[in-house]
Write a structure and sequence with these properties.
9-stranded antiparallel beta sheet, 258 residues, Jelly Rolls, 0% helix, 49% strand, mainly beta
Length: 258
């Protein structure tokens, strides 16, 4: 229907709906919820590592993945590109250990005391085992025929960070090298382990604005032996306080050189 109206000498034309039905307004379709952005790739090159897990394989020993990849709930990515490690006190253990771990083992071997080899890490401690035995955060570990023998262990326990250097393959002969005191949770901790290739090793760590460094000789027992770096959450509890007891660590950076 068309209506013509004369107002003040002007002509106004009004269009009216002649169909008898009500007009329908068009409404835009609701927006599809956006997918969450993908997590960034880890700041750690996982193809360079093998992952030990606190879950059993078909033989009843701790399982492993080579090359390493994410494995919930043991090692998972964080939004900032880090890696969250969780190792419960009640988990499965490797054949030659009594302590469950979620730990990366380097796939690159070297000879102890030969050439410069360095492991650098940046991490945040989130949880320690309740019995006070702490976590080993980094190692120089035997490889090949010496694969069951660690001899350098960077351990946090009772708020202290120290390096434990074994002097023999088996037994309790070792030397403790203190690094830092008052190491707590939820703050960044950086460390470096270096085999200088001249018979000496250096260890350094930074926490809460303090940096400490110490030096130790490569034990005679291990000079020239095939070894590798390891890093992660090798919790040391001797007594489990349940399924939620264990170690939890975020590694923000882990780099091996040499």
């Amino acid at each position: 229907m068309v209506l013509v109206v004369l107002l003040g000498g002007g002509v106004w034309i009004i269009l009216a709906n002649s169909g008898g039905g009500s007009s329908e307004s068009q409404t835009a379709a609701p927006a599809t919820p956006a997918s969450p952005p993908p997590l960034p790739p880890p700041g750690i090159e996982l193809s360079d590592w093998k992952l030990s897990l606190p879950e059993s394989n078909e033989d009843g020993n701790a399982a492993s993945i080579e090359p390493a990849t994410f494995k919930a709930p043991w090692m998972t990515p964080t939004p900032d590109g880090g890696l969250m490690f969780w190792a419960p006190t009640s988990g499965a253990t490797t054949k030659n250990s009594d302590h469950p771990r979620t730990e990366l083992q380097s796939r690159t071997y070297f000879n102890a005391g030969s050439g410069v080899h360095t492991l650098t890490a940046s991490l945040t401690l989130l949880q320690l085992p309740r019995d006070g035995e702490g976590i080993i955060l980094g190692q120089i570990h035997g490889a090949g025929e010496n694969s069951s023998v660690p001899y350098v262990m960077l351990r946090v326990q009772d708020k202290k960070l120290r390096v434990v250097v074994k002097q023999i393959g088996k037994g309790g002969k070792l030397i403790n090298y203190p690094l830092l005191d008052n190491v707590g949770l939820n703050s960044p901790l950086n460390y470096t382990i270096t085999d200088l290739g001249n018979g000496s090793m250096t260890f350094s760590a930074t926490y809460d604005g303090q940096t400490r460094q110490t030096t130790a000789p490569v034990p005679a027992k291990f000079v020239g032996k095939t070894v590798r770096f390891q890093a992660g959450d090798y919790q040391q509890a001797d007594n489990s306080a349940g399924t939620q007891d264990g170690g939890r660590v975020i590694f923000h950076r882990l780099v091996e050189q040499g």
